[in-house]
Amino acid sequence: MDNKIKIGLIGLGTVGSGVYKTLQKFDNIEIAKIAVHNKKKKRSIENFDESLLTEDGYEVVNDPQIQIVAELMGGCEPAFSLIKQAILNKKHIVTANKELLAKHGEELFKLAQDNNVVILYEAAIAGGIPLIMPIKTILAGNKINKIKAIVNGTTNYILTKMDVQGASYEDILREAQDLGYAETNPTGDVEGFDAAYKITTLATIAFGKRIKFENVYREGITKIRPQDMKLANEMGYKIKLIASAELDEDGRADVRVHPMLVPKTKTLAHIDYVTNAVTLTGHPVGEITLSGPGAGEFPTASSVVGDILAIVSEIGVTDYILPMMRCSHSENAQMIEISETMNKYYISITSKNNIGVIGRIGNLCAENNISVSSIVQKEIKNNCADITVITELCKEIDMQNFIKTLNQDNSVIEVNSLIRVQI
User: Fold this and answer.
1) Domains of the chain
2) What pTM was computed for the model?
3) 262-305 per-position pLDDT tens digit
4) What backbone phi and psi angles, to 5 degrees, belong to 221?
5) To the nearest 10°, the Cα dihedral for 58, 60, 65, 70?
6) Do residues 145 and 206 make contact, with C-beta atoms less than 8 angstroms apart?
7) What is the pLDDT of residues 45-54, one digit of tens each?
């Protein structure tokens, strides 16, 4: 027993329970203490030793026997304060907390380096998909310059069901909530916050430059309509919430989260329901896609336990463990504002069925430096026309000016949708 590495858990919810159950299979590891919000809550764990529980997280992080703390509670506080204290007590950290890393990663990684401990976080980006360790090790010889990812299962489930059933966002959201795929308050998922936290940390690691969360452009899926799904399919696309990061030729970073029309020729177009996938592009590897379960008890536990075992294998072997997994960069990335970016766009417009309205839209595009790839008038009802425009590459600021002009035009009843198109 004395030779076992002692672990402390903070949080015993879905992921924490999976980690607890999985760690029971390893003879060289002992879970010494678990901090929970409510000790009296019924646990769906067989033969669970309730004497391990405490409602005081500091009992875990200040326990001198515990060498590794696994933080699985989520949110910034009290997780941030508890992890800081654990690091000051020279304990190694494993976390699945994407929000904490996106907002406070810089401070925590520096503190960890100062105290010669490591922070591992494989589960914080894409659940059970091995991602951070491959980037840090197997792919370390690559210059990664582009990431396109689906990293939120809730939004991917909603968009897939909208696509398959032709149902509205509101109807599918209610269904997802009933099934437990979406929270009662789904804002973090459907407005893109969760994906933005994840791409912030992933881009920081892949590019070797710090990405500031507050500089990541974010747009959710709440405005996507069944009509957009239908039209996208007809044109050879699927609509997905894409977390994107790209370096330009000058090394500036364009990092954002928003819906995109993804060509059906791309792998991400076929990632459906709660599955996650990350496509990395770099040299010399080219383009690779890693896909799998992005959430859930055991998929996420797989990543957490993998991190724990990586640390366990090094304890007592070296005084400076896992050097390749440590944060080694200090430069902040120079960011590209969304207004400066170049994109293709899908625009859905409802207009009066006036003579020359399509020509008018084309002229407004030209006046705003926008070249049209296609413009289609689908049907006329009550003397109103549904017009779909796909543009060539143009500047975001020019597109926003075009939309303002459209909204002021007497022939235009409504601009229904503006969605960027993946190229």
Assistant:
1) 5-125+297-325 (3.40.50.720), 132-293 (3.30.360.10), 340-421 (3.30.70.260)
2) 0.94
3) 999 999 999 999 999 999 999 999 999 999 998 888 999 999 99
4) -110, 5
5) -130
6) no
7) 988 999 999 9
What are 56's two structure tokens? 């005081």
The residues carrying an active-site annotation are 198
